[in-house]
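Tokens as discussed.
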């Protein structure tokens, strides 16, 4: 998917001025727009099938009547009671009824929750159906953060930077990097390792490592459930390290819960370290209600 917005232009012949008449009318003013939106949806669905080979992801985002969020056509910023659902109020209507822009401004103008921002790519890839890519990103984020933990701890202990210091130690760890970083090396540097913080953490880490390696080395194509499990594994390990005071990694309210719910409601072969539906509120590392 392109990183920027994609503009679809839909044109058609206005035979005998029918479209113009609808725009100038009352009840049927939105019909041409709804037809255009339907055509755009067909283009997006076709693109998705060609690019991904399946239609399993939650989005490409549909628009118009097929979408649950944006489904009302506005003409010149307003609508009339007879143009749309009669239960909706008539007259002027603000574009941003829920004031989402106001909520978004602090995050747009600053660098809030920097680690959580990195995980947004995982959710975006997941929603578009790029499950293997989402796992690669989730693993890469955890690997980078884990290496950063080791680097910072070594520096605090006076280990110098360079080939004869931190770099030499880190480059010497070639096999089982994350298992080493979050296992015995973390215990040496911080007095505890992942399994001391989250008992099932090593199992979750093993799942994430296994899926990442299968994708990177064997061309494995992940399923939606496997991607949900992997994203949750990565985020929960980071949340556990944050909870233990080893890593500063704040998540916005709801992000951890979203990842956990995605995994909890994914089947088949749900790992034991993933909570079952109905058990979501029992996670000690959930920062949602902190």
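Sequence:
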């Amino acid at each position: 998917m392109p990183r920027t917005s994609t503009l679809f232009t839909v044109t058609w012949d206005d035979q005998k001025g029918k479209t113009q008449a609808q725009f100038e009318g009352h009840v049927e003013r939105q019909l041409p727009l709804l037809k255009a939106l339907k055509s755009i949806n067909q283009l997006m669905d076709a693109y998705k099938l060609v690019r991904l080979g399946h239609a399993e992801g939650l989005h490409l985002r549909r628009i118009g009547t097929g979408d649950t969020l944006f489904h009302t056509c506005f003409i010149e910023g307003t609508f009339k009671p007879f143009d749309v659902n009669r239960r909706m109020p008539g007259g002027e209507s603000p574009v941003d009824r829920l004031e989402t822009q106001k909520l978004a401004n602090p995050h747009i103008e600053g660098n809030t929750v920097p680690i959580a921002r990195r995980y947004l790519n995982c959710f975006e890839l997941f929603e578009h159906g790029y499950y293997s890519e989402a796992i690669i990103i989730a693993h890469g984020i955890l690997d980078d953060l884990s290496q950063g933990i080791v680097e910072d701890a070594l520096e605090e202990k006076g280990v110098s930077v360079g080939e004869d210091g931190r770099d030499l130690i880190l480059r010497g760890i070639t096999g089982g990097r994350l298992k080493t970083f979050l296992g015995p090396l973390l215990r040496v540097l911080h007095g505890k390792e992942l399994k001391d913080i989250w008992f099932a953490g090593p199992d979750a880490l093993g799942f994430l490592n296994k899926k990442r390696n299968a994708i990177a080395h064997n061309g494995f194509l992940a399923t939606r459930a496997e991607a949900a499990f992997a994203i949750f594994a990565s985020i929960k390990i980071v949340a556990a390290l944050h909870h233990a005071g080893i890593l500063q990694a704040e998540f916005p309210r709801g992000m951890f819960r979203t990842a956990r719910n995605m995994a909890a409601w994914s089947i088949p072969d749900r790992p034991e370290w993933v909570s079952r539906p109905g058990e979501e509120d029992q996670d000690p590392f959930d920062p949602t209600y902190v």
